[in-house]
Amino acid sequence: MTKHNVFFVAILSSLLVASPVLAAGDVTPPRKLGWSFDGMFGRVDKPSAQRGLQVYKEVCAACHGIKRVAFRTLTDIGFSEAEIKALAASYTIKDGPNDDGEMFERPGLPSDKFVPPYANEQAARAAQNGAYPPDLSLIIKARPDGANYLYSLLTGYGQTPPDHVHVGEGMHYNPYFAGGQIAMAAPMSDGQVTYADGTQASVDQMAKDVVSFLQWAAEPEMEHRKQTGIKVLIYLAIFTAFMYVAKRRLWRKLH
User: Fold this and answer.
1) Fewer Cβ atoms within 10 A, N terminus or C terminus of the chain?
2) Which residues are bridge partners to 248 per DSSP?
3) Which residues contact 45 (CB under 8 A, 6 or more apart)?
4) Rounded to whole angstroms, how far apart are CA atoms 84 and 88?
5) pLDDT tens digits, residue range 124-180?
6) pTM above 0.90, yes or no
7) What is the DSSP code (8-state) at residue 89?
């Protein structure tokens, strides 16, 4: 066999060996939804974000934290100061040291941030059989097309895995997750929460609501940023028109 043929066989063999791995790494592109926060005129859907906070508290908070979100910022999505004080007080905050040099616990204040479910990553992994449930504060910004990705992931359970995907013990098939399998079981089921505004709590609705909330949590300045951008564009348009008129008049006199 010539050196050329040996090289060709080696390349072909490596591709054949690698093909199952590549297939196992296939990821279904996320479904595309139209979100209220999309585009230059995007805004926060406050009722949806408020429902999303409820979904987070009742469904997600047992495993996932939002440690970068302060209670007082919830005014941005329509909560009153009284509601925020009551919510903050329902959490226990470890504070200190006091005058005796000891740590102590106290009710939460609006200035505090949400308390994560685990003290540290090691405790989280120990409770989750080695898997680490990530903090969700910035999850929308941390993933490409984060809103659509998270929505698709939450609603992507219950499908039959293709033949090339072998779902390991303790894993669950989800085509939107890398490798097609994820340690987290389906977190939502229809009617799992009871919305105060009477909205039907289907899996689809809960996924949309929690995405709306987490989008705001990841980018609370979004509305202000986009409104400022629009004002700047309007200013530039007016300034450009003014300068164009001034230039025409100036050159008319010179000619």
Assistant:
1) C
2) none
3) 36, 37, 212
4) 6
5) 999 888 889 999 999 999 999 999 999 999 999 999 999 888 888 889 999 999 889
6) no
7) H
